[in-house]
Every structure is written in structure tokens, then in C-alpha cells.
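## tool: complex_structure
## caller: assistant
## args:
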Amino acid sequence: MEFGNKILVIIPAYNEEKRIASVIRGVKDHLPLAEVLIVDDGSHDKTRWAVIEAGAKVLSHPMNLGYGAALQTGYKFALDKGYEAIVQMDGDGQHDPSFVPELFGVVQRGEADVVIGSRFLETRSTILADKIYQAPFVRRLGMRVFGTITSLIIQQKITDSTSGYQAMNCKVLEWVSSDKFPWDYPDADVLIMLHRAGFRIKEVPVHMFENRDGKSMHSGWRPIYYVFKMFLSIMVTLMRK
Amino acid sequence: MPIRNKVVALVVGLWMLLLIVELVRRRKLREEYSWLWLMTGSVILLLTLWFDLLKWITQLVGAVSPSSTIFLFAFLFLVFISLHFSVVISKLTDRNKELAQRHALLELEVHELKKKNLPPEEGVLSKK
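## result:
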């Protein structure tokens, strides 16, 4: 499969004016042919302006809709403009952009329809080992539980079902742009849905860095809701035909 | 049913029906969401005028007294209407998201179209 220039990197961002420019630069350094699209999810700071100054495209939500909705806006844009593959990554600098070409490569070679960047697989080098992201215990436990559930259901080993560092081809784009996509915390449930829709999933190792300001979408009471939502979503997914 | 209770129930039932109709007339309540309330007002009126029906329902559900039956159905009604509104809110949330996404996509398209037609110094984006 040859993608030419039709590749897009989607980065949802919320109040990331300080870091977004360096994330964009990182992607452009490693994949100069790719277009970078930032989905500004109703930021209160100057994220939008920082993106324009960095020379990337920006889609701005008029209000904060959440990570999943921001991703889906990017998917809809990619589908509308005819991109043949996309990579999605976080705007907080946690995802090492040097792995973007590897994620793309797997989709490009047709080895999988969806590629997940896993922080738990052995990486290609150990140079950055000291900077590898170490999630807090409760979060690690959650990742392990949902990873195991996903692996059991799709009969394939998934080590990092909560990773937002992913790549996908246009067939998957069509699916995730539809109203089937669970835009409220899409994680393990999406992988199960994609598997049931017949898409091939593959994990590749990536580096993830520590979140420097400790800001997370899983803070406060949200982890409790997240666990509830994920269990319910997986259960109803299994009940659907 | 004592006459005083009957009068109070009739007034409440009628007042409720009139209030709902008036809210629909003033376009403050959509017809779509008025039917549950109209049905409630009608049921209050019906049970007031036909007390034997309430007694029969009380016997049917095994309640101690007609007032317990009324409380039971009032509670069930509130649960049902809350569920109904949760469904409506879910639908509205989805639509809200769709609109915001479409707004963002169109805004970028307008911005790129304007950029093509305007000299570079007349940028169309303003700082937030």
C-alpha cells in the first residue's frame, strides 16, 4: 500500500499552549511528509494560536467535549479529506514522536488495520529507559485488568489497551468516524469493537515519557467512572450482534 | 372518597392539565415532552372521578390503602420520567457533539478558503 502524501497525524489538545509547538516540531522532524492536525478541544489558553504559529492545521471545538470527541473530529476530517492513514498521539508530549514512522510503517505495509503503540513491549533501544513513563500503581492495575480482558476477548495478547498512541488505515477511519465510536473515554472497548468489526490489530513497542505537570484526564473521580464505563461498554459490546 | 379530598384532587388535576397546555401554547414545552405530564394530569382526574377504579387497582397490586397506591404510582412515574429525560439528555449530548465537530470542521474550511482569497497580512484568525 502506498500512501504518498496522504498521511495525517492527529493530536487532540486541551490547554497545551506551552508544549504543543514542540510536539508538532517533533512529528515534523520524524515524518516531514505527514500533515499535522491539532484538535483544540475548547482550550482556555492560546493553544490554537500556538498551533497556527507552529504551522500545523487546527480544528477548534467551541467547547470542551473530551478526548474521544476530539479524536473523532480528527477522524472525520481525515475521512473527509481522503487521508489513507492516520497516526494519533497525545498533545502533552508523553508520546515519543520518533516512533510515528514505525506506527505508520506497519499500516503502510498492510500488516494490520490498527496499530497500538505499547509502552510495555520491549523498545528498540534502551537509551531512553530512564525516561520511560511509569504510571501510578492504581492506573497500572487498571491497564493490566483491561488489557487482560481485551486479550481474552479478542484472543490476542494486548499489553497496552489504554494507549492513545495509535495508527490506522482508512477502512478503520470510516468506522471510528461513525456513531458506533464510543467517544466517551475510548480505550479497551474500541479495540474489542474493532476486532468484532473484523479489523486486524497489532501492537508495536513505543516510548512514553512521564507527564511532567501531572495533569491527566484520569484525575479526581474520573477513574471510578472510567472503570464503570469501560466494564459496561465492554459488556454491551459483547451483547451486540 | 371524602368530598374535600375529591375537590383538592380535582383542582390539582385540572390545574396541572391547564398548566401543561398553557406551557405548550407559549412554546415553553414541546408537544413531544408534554404527553407524559398530560397523561399524569388525566390519570389524577380519572381516579378522582372514578374512585372505584383506584380501589380496584389497590386490590390488584396488593396495597394497604388507596393512598399507598397513589404514592407507588407517583414514585414509578418519577422514575420513568427521569429515565425518559436521561434518554433525551443522551440524545442531546450526541447532537451537541456532532454540532461542535461540524462547527470545527467548517471553521477550518472557511479559514482556508479565506486564506486563499486574502493577501497574507489580512489573516482571518484572531487571537483568543
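## assistant note: Chain B has a mean pLDDT of 86. The interface with chain A takes residues 94, 96-97, 100-101, 103-105, 107-108, 125, 127-128 of chain B (CB under 8 Å). Handing back to user.
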